[in-house]
Structure formats: structure tokens, C-alpha cells
Amino acid sequence: MKPPRSAAAPASGASDMAHIVLTYEDNRLASSLFGQFDEHLALIEQKLGIDARARGNKVEIRGDQAACEQARRALDTLYERLQSGAEIGTKDVDGAVRMAIAQDDQLYLPTLEKKGRMALAQISTRRRTIHARTPTQDAYMRALERAELVFGVGPAGTGKTYLAVAHAAMLLERGQVDRIILSRPAVEAGERLGFLPGDMKEKVDPYLRPLYDALYDMIPAEKVERALAAGAIEIAPLAFMRGRTLANAAVILDEAQNTTSMQMKMFLTRLGENARMVVTGDPSQVDLPPGQKSGLIEALRVLTDVPNIVTVRFQAADVVRHPLVQAIVEAYEEDTVRHRPSAMPLDK
Description:
four-stranded antiparallel sheet
């Protein structure tokens, strides 16, 4: 696969301005790279404040020198992805731009090179390949690869649970584990399942639906159903974990902020031989009754210095859903800072 040819020259009138011309050998891939009606280039223009114009299999980039270089790295990364047979969309473009900016912001991670192309962490299953879209996702995916117990904490929309399920699916496909076990607190304030209609499966399925959705995105539906029937994939409420030792398994606890201290300790001590455990949650969205301590928040404090446990903290900037979601998260974070309880009188 031939890399794109590039030529650069300083723009007249300003030493910090640049004019870069990129040429891509494959016209079909170049068309996919630029997007329908050049929508991908338009997104890069918006994100980086540069001017990008496509002509056939070439694109001319003008603007701030650093921003033009970021655009080049992002486009080259996306083109390589297209050469490997993958498809790209606006979310992929957004992710590539974020990672290119991160390089210049000195947010260097083990998977990033300081110069030239970016080598992003990825998770691959037979159905699809996922690439890191933010520096924190890159660090998280690396942590999933090397650590036996990983905490992924932060706001909604950052990919914490989705990436954990994708990694578990990859391990199962490779034969590195025998089964996947996915769990959540079934009811936010105490798991009182008896009040819900239907049998046990019908009671808990609504609470576990996000885990099903992630699985179906990584593994064909018929294979998921067969694996569920055979016990190779198990989706169960947290209450069902007591008394078990989970060996040769990829184990994920989602919405962990809604566990009690006893539940969290019980879950963490289920870890068995050749097992990988991931705990995800958002400490800012605890739905436990007033006065009830969150097991996730406590565990993050208690286990800080325990070796071989990795904690990856996502921020609002890592939200990869609709841009409005990131704005909503940031607004709530700002409001929380303005109204911190510490600034108010203590209750007597």
C-alpha cells in the first residue's frame, strides 16, 4: 500500500501559515476519505479552523501550520484505515482529529508516536474493528490489554462499557477466555426484582439491555444467542454473583456506582484464575438511597495503591456521542463545581 504523497510550502505573508497538498493514489478511497459532498473535509475544517479543498484525488490544505499538520496526520490515518478495508464515518473523522490534536498537546501515550503517523490502539473482532477516538480511550484500551482488573470511570458517552464488552468479545473469539460474564445492579436502589412483572429473565432484561446492544454490535446475533444458550455468554444481575469464583472469564460490572460497599467487595473477590475483570461507572450519577455509600467510590479510594489494578478516568472531553452530549456533561460539571456542598454549611 503506497502512502499518500504530500508537498508543503509556506503560505505567502505569514511564516506560521502553511499550504499542504496531499495526493492519494486510489481515487475510490480518496472519495471515501473526503466524504459525500466532502463532508469529512468540512468537519476537519470546522474542528481545526483550516481550509481544505478536494480536487479529484488531491486535497489542498491551507491555514495555521500546526493545524494543517494535524489535518494531514488525521487524513493519513483515516486513509490507512480505508486501505485496510474498513469504512469510516464522521465519528471516525472526529476521533482522528482529536488524536492528532492530542499529539501536539503533549498527551503522548504508549500507542502514539511523536512524529509522522499515529498508531492508535484498536480492538478487533470478526465483525468489526474499533479504533481509539480520544487519548483516554487509547489508554483505556491499552489497560484492558495488559491488566487483570481495570476501573473505567467517567461520564456517559465516553465508551467505557462499549469498549469493555468489545474487548471481552475479542478475548472470547481468540480463545483467551472461555466465557463472558456481564453484570449490572438490576435495580438502582436495592435490586427489588420481586415487584417487577414476569419471570426472572423478563425482570432483569430491561436493566441489562445496554450490555446486549454492545454484544450484538460486536458478534453476529445468531452467535450471541447460541453463546447465551450454551453459557459461553452470561448476562446476570449483580445479586447472582455471590458465592461464585469466576475463572477463565472476561467479567464486566457496569453501572458500578450503584453498588453498595458490600456488593462491590463481593464482586471484586469473585476474580479467579485466568480471568479479566472490568468495572465501569459514573461516580457523579449515584442512584443509591440518601446516606448509602457507593461501592465504586469507596473502591477507587481503597484500592489506589494496589498493584496490577489500573484506573482510567474519562472526562467530558472524551464523550464520543452526539456533540450535544458533551456540552450537556460539561454544563452539569460546571454547575456541580459552582454548587459544591463544601461551600455550604455542614448539617448538624
